[in-house]
Design a protein that fits this description.
Helix 6 packs across helix 8. Strands 6-10-11-16-15-14-13-12 form an eight-stranded mixed β-sheet. The chain has a five-stranded mixed barrel with strand order 1-2-3-5-4. The longest helix is centred in the N-terminal third of the chain and has 23 residues. It has two domains: 93 residues, OB fold (Dihydrolipoamide Acetyltransferase, E2P); 318 residues, BirA Bifunctional Protein, domain 2, CATH 3.30.930. It contains 13 helices and 16 strands. By secondary structure, it is an alpha+beta fold.
Length: 460
């Protein structure tokens, strides 16, 4: 007999005989001659009620089932006389796959997020985290669907790299050498003995590789893990996180901005249409303003302002900021929050940043002081997308990289791409976890990743 998922069972149109469901016991209570079991298999938020009659051969064991136990139930799906549920299962047989001990840490009481992070291997069984990770799955599907529908090719870029794409230097080194036998102060390590014969790192971005593919295939995107060794314990930062990075040939900054806006709108609409039960949970218990905020993304176009306009708005505001903002300084989280939540009260795209605070690959504008870069800012989470039109002119790119002190020999292939059929092209990176934070109202990035990697945290 084939097992059926509970999310399909509860949406059945008619009773089902010879039904088989499997899952974990959420709660159980005994009544006169019966035991009522709330069963969940992770496929949806709702539990399925199972009624075990005392006539079952192993009823004495069934009435002692504990929370967290795993069982298999065969029986009949029947209309339920109880309120709040359409169906219930009248059990013919219940197999106890595993009986959880009494010290099972997830009990009926509400647990704090901090506590649940210490048992990340079990927290997906809670309502909140089960819903979060189902939405994560659906959002991943929506990303692939969006780009496929818009003619993009899905490409795979390396996780191991010899380059620092962003130039920030926050890289995780990778080696096969025995470091235990090396002095920490030894700067004369013979890299020729290492696997690649040179320094290697976990990637901070797939962008540079994606650019090469865009300059051959047109419109491409990559979606995968990236790594940054920032010693940051903020609610918005993690050492390992996922990035969505499209690159488009023959695309300028404003077309790039339009693609970014369309992507966020499409993802928001998809989740609202396909994750209604889980979104309702977050709207009710996590962020009561969630639905209003998500609907506003669909109804109002994003505001588009230059970096100089953003500086002017911030500097003229009577609002107290911890950090001053003037031309040449980066926007801080408090500035992003003010623009999106107080001044405009909707998403904002800031573009044309000063060249001094941007990476080497952003196209230099004619004013020689700004670049064709942009950030998309969302309420609650702040920056969710960073992107730009890429510098396609070899001489300008060469000079910019030299001024920033980069070793041009390491980037020979990147520079060479500007010699053979170089064209204007653009791209961006969307932080997948930050998009999940926006969609769910969850305020900490550690709670939208199944097993978060943050400083001093790699237990799971």
């Amino acid at each position: 007999m084939k097992r059926q998922k509970i999310n399909h069972v509860i949406h059945s149109d008619s009773p089902i005989h010879n039904l088989l469901v499997k899952g974990w016991v959420r709660t159980r209570r005994n009544s006169k001659g019966f035991s009522f079991i709330e069963l969940n298999d992770g496929s949806c938020l709702s539990n399925l009620q199972v009624i075990a009659d005392k006539s079952l051969e192993n009823y004495d064991e069934i009435k002692c089932l504990t929370t967290g136990s795993a069982i298999a139930v065969t029986g009949k799906l029947s209309e339920s006389p109880g309120k709040g549920q359409k169906w219930e299962v009248l059990a013919d047989f219940i197999e106890i796959i595993n009986l959880a001990p009494e010290d099972y840490p997830l009990q009926k009481k509400r647990h704090s997020d901090e506590f649940l992070r210490t048992i990340a291997h079990l927290r997906p069984r809670t309502n909140k985290y089960g819903a979060a990770f189902r939405i994560r799955s659906e959002l991943s599907f929506a990303i692939h669907q969006f780009f496929r529908n818009n003619g993009f090719l899905y490409v795979h870029t390396p996780i191991l790299t010899g380059l620092d794409c962003e130039g920030a230097g926050d890289l995780f080194g990778v080696t096969c050498l025995n470091l235990e036998n090396s002095s920490k102060s030894d700067s004369n390590t013979d890299l020729s003995r290492d696997f690649f014969g040179k320094r290697a790192y976990l990637t901070v971005s797939g962008q540079l590789s994606a650019e090469m593919l865009a300059l051959s295939l047109g419109d491409v995107y990559t979606f995968g893990p990236t790594f940054r060794a920032e010693n940051s314990n903020t609610r918005r930062h993690a050492a390992e996180f996922w990035m969505v990075e499209p690159e488009s040939a023959f695309c300028d900054l404003f077309e790039n901005m339009a693609l970014a806006e369309n992507l966020i709108v499409s993802l928001t609409r998809h989740v609202l249409n396909n994750c209604k039960e889980d979104i309702a949970l977050f709207s009710r218990y996590v962020d009561k303003g969630l639905l209003t905020r998500l609907q506003s993304v669909l109804s109002d176009p994003f505001v588009k302002i230059t970096y100089e306009e953003a500086v002017s708005i911030i500097s003229k505001s009577s609002h107290h900021f911890e950090y001053d903002l003037s031309f040449g300084k980066s926007l801080q989280a408090e500035h992003e929050k003010y623009l999106t939540e107080q001044y405009f009260k909707r998403p904002v795209i800031v573009y044309q940043y000063p060249k001094e605070i941007t990476p080497f690959y952003m196209r230099l504008n004619d004013d020689n002081r700004t670049v064709a870069g942009m950030d998309v800012l969302l309420p609650i989470v702040g920056e969710i997308i960073g992107g730009s039109q890429r510098e396609e002119r070899l001489d300008v790119l060469h000079a910019r990289m030299e001024n920033m002190g980069l070793n041009l020999e390491d980037y020979w292939w990147y520079l060479e791409s500007r010699k053979f059929g170089s064209v204007p092209h653009s791209g961006f990176g969307l932080g997948f976890e930050r998009m999940l934070m926006f969609i769910t109202g969850i305020s900490n990035i550690r709670d939208v990743i199944p097993f978060p990697r943050t400083p001093r945290n790699i237990d799971f």
